[in-house]
Amino acid sequence: QVQLVESGGGLVKPGGSLRLSCAASGFTFSDYYMSWIRQAPGKGLEWVSYISSSGSTIYYADSVKGRFTISRDNAKNSLYLQMNSLRAEDTAVYYCARVEVGIAAAGIVPYYFDYWGQGTLVTVSS
Amino acid sequence: QSVLTQPPSVSAAPGQKVTISCSGSSSNIGNNYVSWYQQLPGTAPKLLIYDNNKRPSGIPDRFSGSKSGTSATLGITGLQTGDEADYYCGTWDSSLAEVFGGGTKLTVL
Fold first, then answer.
1. What does DSSP say about strands A120-124 and A10-12: parallel, antiparallel, or unpaired?
2. Which end of chain A has fewer CB atoms within 10 angstroms, the N or the C?
3. Taken in order B88, B92, B95, B98, is the CA torsion positive or negative?
4. Residue of B nearest to A4 (CA)
């Protein structure tokens, strides 16, 4: 069965860095696009980033562009999120999710997130 | 402020039907598929509806989805107390970003 397990969350000071990991199993990781989605305490879902199966296509939300870097290691079945210059507003539970994509007029686009991990909490506070 | 607009809350009695709306624009819902996610208290979101109106395996047919123009709707019939959760719509936007609604809290009275 598909499993996504995030790790690496914790307490970090403003301006600090953190690297999240997501270990995938139960499917051919290298065949799938992947994404990070976060949820601030008591708030709704916010998409953070997505990466193509080969890693050649990457998109970021404007709120994290230039500070966060998504990457993957298909040999290790792992997804990563390097977070730098962290701010208080980055405090959230971070979920990794598997992405199903399809062909649209604009090219390959994500259609939906079919499996989610349990999330890892990142707290940015002094 | 979310790109997609959902009502903050809806409620209905057990056994009744409820609908949750999701309003967007031509840059998102109008030109892309909509998905819906259910988030039970204290858990991760779960895919409920994809491609506007399809249900993943294991999702009961009490849950349905539809789309018309720049709006989408989630319907739940035969409400159960176990359906109490937050519900989110999502879709791709032409700004090259996935967008979600602000979420709707369903209360089964």
1. parallel
2. N
3. positive
4. B44
